[in-house]
Amino acid sequence: MTADLSQIVKAYDVRGVVPDQWDEALAELFGAAFVQVTGADAIVVGHDMRPSSPGLSGAFARGAAARGADVTLIGLCSTDQLYFASGKFDLPGAMFTASHNPAQYNGIKMCRAGAAPVGQDTGLADIRALVESWSEQGAPEPAAERGTVTERDTLTDYAAHLLSLVDLSSMRPLKVVVDAGNGMGGHTVPTVFEPLPVTLVPMYFELDGTFPNHEANPLDPANIVDLQARVLSEGADLGIAFDGDADRCFVVDERGQGISPSAITALVAARELAKHPGGTVIHNLITSWSVPEVVRENGGVPVRTRVGHSFIKQEMARTGAIFGGEHSAHYYFRDFWNADTGMLAALHVLVALGGQDGTLSELVAQYDRYAGSGEINSTVDDQSARTAAVKAAYASRKDVTIDELDGLTVSTEDWWFNLRPSNTEPLLRLNVEARDEQTMAKMRDEALGLIRGA
Prior knowledge:
Blueprint: E1 14-17, H1 24-38, E2 42-47, H2 53-66, E3 70-76, H3 79-89, E4 93-96, E5 105-112, E6 116-117, H4 124-137, E7 149-151, H5 155-163, E8 174-179, H6 185-193, E9 198-203, H7 225-234, E10 238-242, E11 249-252, H8 261-275, E12 280-284, H9 290-297, E13 301-305, H10 309-319, E14 323-325, E15 331-333, H11 342-354, H12 360-365, E16 371-372, E17 376-379, H13 383-394, E18 401-403, E19 408-411, E20 415-421, E21 427-434, H14 437-452
Parallel strand pairs: 2-3, 2-4, 3-7, 8-9, 8-10, 12-13, 12-14
Antiparallel strand pairs: 1-5, 4-5, 5-6, 10-11, 14-15, 16-21, 17-21, 18-19, 19-20, 20-21
Helix pairs in contact: 1-2, 1-4, 5-6, 8-9, 8-11, 13-14
């Protein structure tokens, strides 16, 4: 097929509807292009539970092997399990998943050896250019010597590596409900949790890429309703929800209340700083004020960055940071090749809770200090014009600081908000935080009025 790659090659990955926007023939060209751009003589490939994933990943492997690269297929895996394989074997990797997108979508997350990200500026644009050329003119000539394709299971080694990074010795028994959303958490959780002193209550562990129960996106409150109810009915100590490719986790306390990913970032940062005193911690600019505060209180150095995993990973590498967190529930660890793993974050929460006698809500209270709005999307005709109008409304105020590291951030001593344009939709995304609920609500409504022209 001659594809419109502008529709499927995003900033950090490939993603689109199968077979309308891309298919196995195109996946084969992506495999060949990936090998050419990375210069790899061996790669590792994994896939999620979507109906189209085995065929697409197999085609990618054929394309890579035709260019002379040896391919290790690790089969069904979570995205962070693919990053583990890339790091452990020091090989470039490709993961076939569309994360939390609906069933008809699929995609490719690619990385260089050691789980280093491949984005627009780090190879993805070059891969796209080759695939476009080949889709019009025909596939390139095969290499003189075709690569091999072999299979290898990495789940046990992945679990062992994660468990080596937390101390289980003083952990008390816990009851935990896990909602895998019919995604890859249903594959990884049983093996990772097996040595833990936990009673596991599984929800939607059956691998089903049609997502029959709810979308595998735990950041949407509608998708954790079942988990919240089950935590209460089971009298569990906590609940954990994973997204479709299980690289993000969302946590619910014993009262069935969702815990802010910023509070989880602060909790894990404190634990990582206990292991690595004086370390640097990366946080994006829409995480809570509490994150840099907790980092400083624990002797660490906070570094603020733009939203997006490529920016986080770049800063992790540049600064030698020990940990990074995003308000989207992505958590990055130096001990995991600077890659994101929701599973390791979940283990930190379990061990932190199990290492003391209080409840999870009591434990995280020290990390959840301010009132936040969550992300609020507004559809606008002109993103730039509406952002400029908001900036103009605050530019003359003496108590206000404005920065444009990523979108527009307006802050005072008592509140801040960030307004960012979506890269793919005519939306502006607003996040507001304040020292109390009343101030947050006032600033949220004031900002929304300016954004929406009310």
